[in-house]
Amino acid sequence: MATITLDNLAHSYLPRPQGPEDFALKELNHDWQDGAAYALLGASGCGKSTLLNIISGLLIPSQGRILFDGVDVTHAPTAERNIAQVFQFPVVYDTMTVRDNLAFPLRNRGRPEAYVAERVAEIAAMIGMEHVLDRKARGLTADAKQKISLGRGMVRKDVNALLFDEPLTVIDPHMKWELRTQLKKLHHDFGHTMIYVTHDQTEALTFADRVVVMHDGRVVQIGTPEDLFDRPEHTFVGYFIGSPGMNLLPAEVAGRLARIPGGVTPLAVDYPTLTGRVQLGIRPEHLRLSADEGLPVTIRRIEDVGRHRIIRADLEGHDLNIIAPEDQPIGPEMTRAVFDPARIGIYADDWRVAPH
Predict the structure, then answer these.
(1) What homologous superfamily does CATH list for 4-240?
(2) In the prediction, which pLDDT does 1 show?
(3) Assigned CATH for 250-352
(4) Cis peptide upstream of residue 244 (ω within 30 degrees of 0)
(5) Common-topology check for domains 4-240 and 250-352
(6) pTM here?
(7) Which of these, 69, 82, 52, lies nearest to 160 by C-alpha position?
(8) Residues with Cβ < 8 Å from 193, sequence gap 6 or more?
(9) Fewer CB within 10 A of the end CB, N or C, for the chain?
(10) Phi, psi of 130 (to 5 degrees)
(11) What is the pLDDT of residues 170-198, one digit of tens each?
């Protein structure tokens, strides 16, 4: 296990980058704590896999350094970094049995056969493949092969870090839940430093101690799932996390009041005079419908998703999503939306503004 330090790290796939727009990964400084479980979360093309491949040694960064426990490994090959990496699509030895695939990383390091057999049995049980240990990998399905890849990544206890690059893409939904649970247990039992790349917020929020949200090649927030939901530091975090995501409305802010389409809503705290593109952000969970207070809205439709209902409304030409408890009555007279002042965030040029 290791603390992984990213020091002034950035990467461009162009030979002579001229400006920030030429960088797939913009400048990053951060320490990944020894033994923590991280998720790298963001949309396709945001730089997640680029960063993971720099950590693993498959890619040398254009600038900056990467250190394991203070040792510079920027130019060290993957084999010298003592990491295990699982890729999006299965990488297995088709001519080997499942047992030999799982045993390969241990045998390659000269571990005793008794230990190899014990560890393979543990991992096979973890990924649900005890019954096919002696089958050749060639005839197995894609999701079975990916379970072998996951197992091979997890079989060693002595790695500095376990890196997962969208490893559950080809796994069926029920097995995804099972394997995420097993990965959490593995982390709890052995304390590996784990970094898990995904574009799926559910995977990220259920797997990680801390989630690293990436957008347009930069890290926009690092925090617990609660941090990201309750206090998004960037509008992308608010939009990307949550279902539906945060409502974002153009705003003019003066002290404890925000003028938005449809009228004025109070704020819980004072804000300074703001410039640039100012927006009010509020999650659908923190709005409610009313018959006699709040701002007038037009309800377009109501979606019942079992646990609650999602009200799709229009506020002066802007989409507004409201989440209502399943048992809350919604009458035809309830055509106004009330904003919870304590749950409003104010953003200038996409970044959260601190109040006075």
Answers:
(1) P-loop containing nucleotide triphosphate hydrolases (3.40.50.300)
(2) 61
(3) 2.40.50.140
(4) yes
(5) no
(6) 0.85
(7) 82
(8) 1, 2, 3, 4, 32, 33, 34, 35, 36, 37, 160, 161, 162
(9) C
(10) -60, -35
(11) 677 777 777 777 777 777 776 778 888 88
